[in-house]
Write a structure and sequence with these properties.
Strands 1-12-2-8-9 form a five-stranded mixed beta sheet. The protein has a three-stranded antiparallel beta sheet with strand order 4-5-6, covered by helices on one side. It starts with 5 loop residues before the first strand and ends in a 26-residue tail after the last strand. The chain has helices at 22-32, 47-53, 67-76, 80-88, 135-150, 204-216; strands at 6-10, 42-46, 57-59, 90-97, 100-105, 110-112, 127-129, 155-164, 167-178, 183-185, 201-203, 225-229. The protein is of the alpha+beta class. The chain has two domains: 6-56 and 132-248, 2-Layer Sandwich (60s Ribosomal Protein L30, Chain: A), CATH 3.30.1330; 58-128, CofE-like domain (CofE-like fold, Alpha-Beta Complex). A hairpin with a 4-residue loop joins strand 5 and strand 6. Helix 1 (22-32) crosses helix 5 (135-150) and helix 3 (67-76) packs across helix 4.
Length: 255
Amino acid sequence: MPARLEAFAVTGLPQIRPGDDLAGLVVAATSDSGIDVQAGDVFVVAQKIISKAEDRIVRLADVQPSAEALRIAADINKDPAMVELVLQESVEVVATGNNVLIVEDKRGFVMANAGIDRSNIEDSDNTALLLPEDPNRSAANLHDALVAHYQKPLAVVIADSVGRPFRLGTTGMAIGSAGIEALENLRGNHDMYGRELQVAEHAVADAVAATAELLMGEGDEAVPVVIIRGLNAGHSGQTAAAILRPRNEDLFRPK
């Protein structure tokens, strides 16, 4: 484990538009922020700017709710167009409540609203922002562009804010990654008393995302990129998909 970690906020990024050269904008903002990128640095990038650059923006007026969406919307007091978007992005409805729709989305994430959000986007009354189609591919593309520019081993984590079923509040979670060991297998190591670890795994990418979120914030902070230093990343081919729990190990949903 590292003896020291540092986190640097990358400021000054413009509003991201569909088709923008996100890597180029991140490089420019990193330079303007006075950050000297070092080998092993992890670029933690907010999901929203990835989705915006990939044009994952949907006009709610263009969404035609299905009969199922209308039924669920009436049951849980939710906008039918939003419910329809969630269903389109999902493979299973896991739980519902008043204005709450928890699903397993097409990428395997169990979360509210399939990660679809209407905060911190323009015209949020009429538009919604979907998750990237393939966050690990998005992370890999950005990773490759950054490595090509800096000529150093680096890593990328795409972070999103999520709630947890047994705790209040949101925290950062890695929905995509490249160049970092997302899930560290500690089995076979020993604790401080010499006991061999049997089941221990560390969700490193999630921990990195949560750390970065302390600087990113949830409101108008406008810090969509944070650099985490001290993990000596940039040498792993693993992705954030490694953190997803297999369905046959899920003890909370009916088999």
